Amino acid sequence: MKGRAIIAIGLWLLCGRCVFALNPALNINQYAHTSWRIPEGAFKGTVYSIAQTPDGYLWLGTEFGLLRFDGNRSVPWQPPEGQHLPGRSITRILAARDGTLWIGTDAGLASWKGAKLTMHPELDAQLVASLLEDRTGTVWAAGLGVPTGRLCAIRAGNTQCDGGDGAFGQMVLSLYEDTTGNLWAGTQSGLWRWKPGPPTHFAMPPGQLHDLTKGDEGELLIAMPGGIKRLVQGRSEPYTVQGFKEPFNANRLLWDRDGSLWIGTLDRGLIHVHQGRAAVFSQSDGLSGNVIFSLFQDREGNVWAATNGGLDRFREFPAITVSVKQGLSTDNDWSVLAARDGSIWVGGANGLNRWNNGQVTIFRKSSGLADDAAQSLFEDDRGRIWAFARHGLAYFANGRFVSVNSVPGGEAHFIAGGQAGNLWVSEHQSLLHLRAGRLVERIPWSQLGRQENASVLEPDRQGGMWLGFWRGGGVAYFKDGKIHATYSTAQGLGESAVAGLTLGQDGSLWAATEGGGLGWIKAGRVATLTTRNGLPCDIVHWAMEDDSHSLWLYTACGLLSIARTELSAWIANPNHRIETTVWDAADGVRLRSTSPSGYSPRVARSTDGKLWFVTGNGVNVVDPRHLATNRLPPPVHIEQVTAGRKVRWQNLSSAAASNPARPALTGDLEIDYTALSFVAPEKIRFKYMLEGKDHEWQDAGNRRQAFYTNLPPRDYRFRVIACNDSGVWNEAGAAFDFSITPAFYQTLGFKAACAAATLLLLWGLHRIRVHQVAREIRAHLEGRTDERLMVARELHDTLLQSFHGLLLQFQAARNLLRGRADDAAQVLDTAIDGAARAITEARNTVQDMRSSTVITNELAQAVELLGKGLAEEQSANGDAASFSIRVEGTSHELHPILRDEVYRITAEALRNAFRHARARRIEVEIMYDARRLRVRVRDDGIGMDAGVLKDGRAGHWGLQGMRERAKGIGGQLEVWSGHGAGTEMELTIPGSVAYGGETSRHSRLPNSKSESNS
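The structure assignment produced for this chain is given below.
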């Protein structure tokens, strides 16, 4: 019950009622205004208090808890796990200079710094109505409670409270420290000056003292029901707000940095007081609600108002608007003229307005104008103001307009003045020429070669006139009654209607076109500036130079400023891309896709250097010398990292969140970041880089998230920088270090194991292939063995038996002829000897075939016998060549066929050496090792020519046959020779082929003694 009573008291204090009349405002409506409304889902409930911590965040105390706000979104604040705030509704918050956030609730006070939440039980069950940090760093908390309210001072963790004696009544509502260090407290019992010195009480009229602040002259102002009071010499008296005769319920007070007083009321919205003038901004003007709970000015100068309907922000526009809210007769303005006396004339559909020092005078038909609708305006060299209304032309003299009856009514699109009092008027049918106020010449447009009126007139310094045209486009130079030069697309001008002409300080002419960019003409030279050269868009309504000779353009995409240096660089080099500064709708500039008016002038430069231009919805005013520029770089924060669709880290600005390691296989990585500039959050631009992956900055525009997928394991640093609406960058930005832990299959050990397994597999495949080749060669040799056995059998069973039979017949014939014919006997004896020799040779061949299939054979012994035999044969013929053989390694038994082929290759090499090389020394080396069998034959003879070594001697097949035999058994034969350098032959056979399978071959070779001995 006690808690409900406290809440009821608080709501009663916040929701008082008052009715009063409001006058039209001048200033507050010219601020940029943005609302975040509760019914639109911006917040869950009412915002009661606003604070900004040193890191740049805005904090909002609401009826449903504490929110952190970055201008783009609000995030509910959660206390540390296992802790909670004293109450759910946040009534007051304070950001102290040391970064502590003090949180006042409807049931007590807490403070939060870093990750620590501290409770202050001295204010338990108190509704905290006000918080203040004085110049010494002491935090003061004021509360409402039953039976008494309290005022507590908190210093270095110690809390001292007063009010238990009932001196304050049930509530302390407001606190204020003035410039001299006095602490003031507004209570139910009245006003107290609490320090320095003993507390002093000042009686006040009945009513709650909602807020306190300083006055114009340093006095104390008190917001109360019925208006504002001020304390003068210890007594309260009314504080007069100019323009308000009826009382109003003041609830909150704020002096901004420009010296304006903002007054929040309980039922009428905001009152803005500046330089003695007051203006009201209420729900009917767009305010989110008429009950103001809190006023706050942030570090960038934005003024915030928390209302019963949401949150509102006010800031200064670079381009302010003057409209009916400032006293103009209409927002449908057609022309604007800056007079030499400093006044501004605005013509529109409902009269002609003269703005002079903020005061507006309206002229209509009753003031001498031909009609209430004022079209084009002009000031002549005598200072007279000319205005063309719908029914004729008039000039201003002695406070009234005087009509010029000689000029017919209709529409005058442009009025321009020449020298010697000449006046030129562009109307539908003709170009009118006036001198001394009288019409002296009417020149039909057809006489000038045009079928339309000129949209723009611009006099030059030589007495001529530049004409710009709508439908046909183009520019013409008119002088002495005729056209002297024309410029169109053929000369390089943009192909579009000419909406504006302006003569530059250097005599050049700038032509604004409605779609063809900005034309430049000087001394017959023409160039056009378009989007290809850096313009944001090609629709240009007008161009105007300011006092510093920079060029200003009103375009479809905003108001542009181009520095003189940029223009000069482009004129010198038409391919130069210019740099521009752009102000758009967010800066108060009304955007138009077509020209806002068909009358003139549409832009004017006043004597103070300001640019005034019509927009079709009021008049925009820009001061090139005092543009509202945000020079504070925005603080940048990384708020949250999501990995694998789970939030892994938050509030990464804190040291506790530095350098975390992301577990393996967490999927996509999403990083949320923000920058804290509340002037125009939608115009903040971001760039980010992930060091370890990105090679350059990524331009994110105004997107506040970065996404990465499939990042390999390593250390990373994510960096983000941002710029505010004025292009001021925070180059330091924010950074976040993290590591991706590799999965087991991404570790170095796993990769090494995979590499080893791959090498082992390749080695195994190689060994399998070698065995396959060896098997194929052995199968080939065994096939040849079977073939030899078959041939041996055939020789034994057929040819040899036939020779035996034939020999018997020859012997019988010889016996029959014995003693009868000596000659016949001699012939038969010769035949018998030949047959015997054939039988012997056939038997030897069969024996050789049989013996070559026997396992037990010795290659070295056979080669040695052959070499010695060839040496003896050569020695018998009278030649002397030495022969030697050397065996290295342990002798291996060879496959009979392979041994036979090796022997035949070696034998061929020896025969060539003994018979053709003329060698004195011949050597044979046989080398056995585990990897290979190698046989070398060397001589020191005459050698062979290169051609013979490559292709062999014509008609001889010895060398080619040796190579074929080597290839057939899986070996490689190399022969080196040179003229007079001897010859070396080397046969190499892999060990797996030469030695493999000795045991298995025994079962496949025949073993028939009867056949081998035949």
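Interim note for the steering committee: The chain has eleven helices and 70 strands. The radius of gyration is 56 Å.
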